[in-house]
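Chapter summary example.
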Amino acid sequence: MDPLFLANPPFALEQARLAAVEMANFSKDALDKAIALITDYKEEEAQEVDYLERKVDQYEDQLGTYLMKINNHHLAPEDSHTLTMLLHCITDYERISDHALNIMQKAKGMAENSREFTPKGQIEMDIFASAVKEIVDMSIKAFETRDVEIAKSIEPLEEAIDGIQKEVKRRHVRRLRKGKCTIEQGFDLSDIGTDYERIADHCSNIAVGVIEVHDDAYDAHEYLETLKADKREGFEQAVDFYERKYQLPSVKF
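The structure predicted for these 253 residues follows.
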């Protein structure tokens, strides 16, 4: 992101986009490492999550400043939409790294207090985490390649993840009532589940940005409202696919 590139705004914008892709991958690395800490806490890995989160913060600060400098130049409408999308997306990737840090800190607390999920609870959280990892992977691929079809697959998975979170919480409450787990385990599960669900929301925002730039417009709120109001057959089928892919094991209470 050399200031000299600003003399050629489209070129400078492309360099910023490539830097944003690097930032996105750092966010993903932080999340993957944080999730692994839940079942196998290692202090050196926890420090790596903290380092990556701070690195992503630096990317957001520098990219945001650079993009605003580009914005001071005349841009074609398509480039203007791309710049707006990048400003939104770097915020979403920064927030994903924040949630990774939250998960790491929760994992650290669990390890320090010798807490862990019940075997059934851990299986459910592993499935939950797998769905979240996939939606993050999809968001980065759609963002990097500007693939609209991938972007359109993200919202159905986000909806399925919302359902997973609700079901995981419901199952925990049932186990708690039967004395099979503790309130402390419930706090851990709820906090990590909230981070997972919010990560999926940020991935949804990124997907909308990719789609709207392709459509030469930028109104994320309007797009999501229209999508949720118009449950097209293809959308419902995609949600069903992800619900089956990440179906939690059947249980008897």
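To summarize the output: The chain has a mean pLDDT of 91.
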